Amino acid sequence: MRYFINSKITVMKTFYLSLVFFLAFANVSLAQNISDNAIGLRFGSSHGLGSEISYQRKLSKINRLEGNLGWSNSSDYNAYKITGIYQWVWNIEDNFNWYAGVGAGIENWNSKNNDSDSFLYASGNVGIEYEFDIPLLLSLDFRPEIGKNNYYNDTFNSNVALAIKYLF
Known about the structure:
The protein has one helix at about 1-30, and strands spanning about 35-45, 50-60, 65-75, 75-95, 95-110, 115-130, 135-145, 155-165. It is an alpha+beta fold. It has an 8-stranded antiparallel β-barrel. Strand 7 and strand 8 form a beta hairpin. The termini are far apart.
C-alpha cells in the first residue's frame, strides 16, 4: 500500500511539473505579432476551382480570421466557393509561424447542361508561414473539407496550397 501511495505522489509531481513547463513554453511561444491585415492569392486546387483570393484579419495576439473566395467561369461550368476559417497562430522562431484552424464554407456550381448544386462543408486548416521584413507573407497549408451534396452522401476534399499575401 505504501508503494502505491508513493507511486501516486510521484506521478502527480511529474504531472504538475510537466504542466508548469508546458504553460511556460506556451506563453513564450505565443509571444508574437500577427499583422492586422493581409490580402493575396492562395494557389491550390480549391476542389477544381484553382486559385483563391485570400484575406486575413487579426482578432487578438494569437487568433485571426481568414476568408477565401475561389471561382471558375469556363465553357463547361460556372462555380464559386467561399471559405471562412478561425485560426490560432504559434511562433516557431522569429518571423516563422505555424497555424491551425477550423471553419466552414459554401460551394455552388452550374454546368452547361443546366445541372447545378450547392452545399455546405466543414473545413480544417494547418500550415506554416514566414513573414519577410518587407510587407510580404509566404505560407504553405493543408485544408481538408467534408460536406454533403445532392450527388454524394459525404464528400471529402483536401488540397495543399501556397499563398502569397501583402501585409498592411
